[in-house]
Amino acid sequence: MKIREFMQRNYKHFNAAVCVDASEGWIKLLEEGGKMMVTLAGAMSTAELGISLAEMIRNDKVHAISCTGANLEEDIFNLVAHNHYERVPHYRSLTKEDEMALLKKGMNRVTDTCIPEDHAIRAMEHEMLELWQEADREGKSYFPYEFMYKLLKSGKLEGKYQIDPKDSWLLAAMEKNLPIITPGWEDSTLANIFVSHVISKDLSRYSIVKSGTEQMGLMIDWYKKTAPGHPIGFFQIGGGIAGDFPICVVPLIRQDLQEDYPLWSYFCQISDSTTSFGSYSGAVPNEKITWGKISIETPSYIIESDASIVAPLVFNYVLDR
């Protein structure tokens, strides 16, 4: 039985039913010639969401991505260092002494998974520093994702892959030349490393990596180029800046630039955040109407569940696997 058939048969109510509704809405958007932006908060790359997300990208179900700097880099960390990762299924019962032991082993814990400092982070530091220094010498600046694409296209990592490259969403995005917005890139491991090299004079300027405001400019360019003739959807995994930053492109264009472009034509969020005072991550979709992001007619869904469980189901439903 296909996943789509299984979900249609079993997912009849509550959050389960919304999974089906949101998936059907995604399919309808694409059938109408629409494009979809997916946003990734949390540590979805370390959760190996690439196994299903890469297929979505290859099959033209996803057309742009917004993600945290952590998700951008951690897909490559997993690509080249997967064999050195360590899973800690009993993470809930770890003592402070257990955590210190992991630190001494060079294992950086993300919930139940530890990223190896040497084989992932420090290995990537060497590769990225060469790219940053090359751009510095040439007086050029690039977006964070463009540096990642340069590294993947160089072929330097091909002999080091430790997972099936088909399971890397970043490789799939590079092959499709998808734009990737990384708001708050500064809050990532490689960004911290980048700053350290500017301070230590290995790099001469911070502007080697383009700023967040320049990324908003990129987002505007993509939206204005795509919107004519293509309704654009927004599928948000988690909350925070990965979602809040790109969704604001619509009121920016309409209210600040005073240009007539359509609102988002589909909205769905997978959220584990409860509705509370002032919380964007926990805000119901209707709040976005007041900010000029979606309309009364925009199909809107919120799935209150664990994204590591729900997102692969939705993706495979859309793929009709």
UniProtKB/TrEMBL annotation:
Presence of keyword rRNA-binding: no
EC number of this enzyme: 2.5.-.-
Signal peptide: none
Name of the top EC class for this enzyme: transferase
GO molecular function, one term: deoxyhypusine synthase activity
Keywords for this protein: NAD, Transferase
Keyword Zinc on entry: no
InterPro entries assigned to the protein according to its UniProt record, in alphabetical order: Deoxyhypusine_synthase, Deoxyhypusine_synthase_sf, DHS-like_NAD/FAD-binding_dom
One of the record's GO cellular component terms: cytoplasm
Family: Belongs to the deoxyhypusine synthase family.
Name of the featured protein: Deoxyhypusine synthase-like protein
Protein's organism: Candidatus Criblamydia sequanensis CRIB-18
Lineage, broadest ranks: Bacteria, Pseudomonadati, Chlamydiota, Chlamydiia, Parachlamydiales
Gene designation: dys
